[in-house]
Amino acid sequence: MKLALEDRVFSIVIHIALLFLAFVTFYPFWNSAVISFNLGSDTSLGGITFWPRVFTLENYQVVLKDVKILKGFGVSIARTLVGTFLTIAATSIFAYGMSRKELIGRGYYMTFCIITLYFGGGLIPTYLLIRGLGLFDSFWVFVIPSIISVWSMIIFRTFFRQIPAGLEDAARIDGCGYWGTFLRVVLPLSGPVVATLSLFTAIAHWNDWFVASIYINNQDLLPVQALLKQTLDSNIASELTQDSAAQSFLAKRQSYTTKSLTMATMMVTTVPIILVYPFLQRYFVKGVLVGSLKE
Predict the structure, then answer these.
(1) Which of 10, 24, 145, 227 has the most CB within a 10 Å radius?
(2) H or E segment at 230?
(3) Distance between CA atoms of residues 260 and 235, nearest Å
């Protein structure tokens, strides 16, 4: 079917706008990648835009030889795996209980959960609570305080409500209790929403640096994002304390700079979580929309 002139103009405008938005979104990431592959002393001269002028892998060699970065990767990977598993497991169990019509007082429980989405105790009470629980300077401070996600619970709960009651009744007739029904019927049917919320939870754990900056003093427990934050702060401090002439002189004496190392560290910490997306992309729309629509 041939489109009218105004429809074609509208389609062209929309495509141009989307291309511009895609460029604006992608270019900062691309520019960071270009700087990370460019010689640091050459980057300090400016003018790096779309391609490395002097290609090098030295920035990555320096970053990957740093023992702190390798330890940070270990902490981040462990935190992401353990935190995601426990959060999804605990939240899905909680959501299944909240989805049961025979649960007495579920309306009050849901109200209390909703309140936590809008109101919090604040940083100081949370800090005192974490210290009182003995989680200060502990790996479990990354996991336990965020083990229940109310937002994810609401999506799980809505999804569970849409599962045909006949399937659960059949499981009950076969002798399954609540646990058996949840593990053998409900959870296997919840693959899309489990995959989607697992990815969202994993990204939150991988990208978080704030918790470590508040509750962790042991350098061996710092995740890689916290180390990246330290690198960025060091870069900003060096730029503030040195004039341009001094920076140019130091850049000529070594092939890498704080900025080039910062960009390389940023790429090393960002690429692993990006690589997860293609494997779970097909679950996004189905998992989020099905879990968020109410019949």
Answers:
(1) 227
(2) helix 224-241
(3) 10
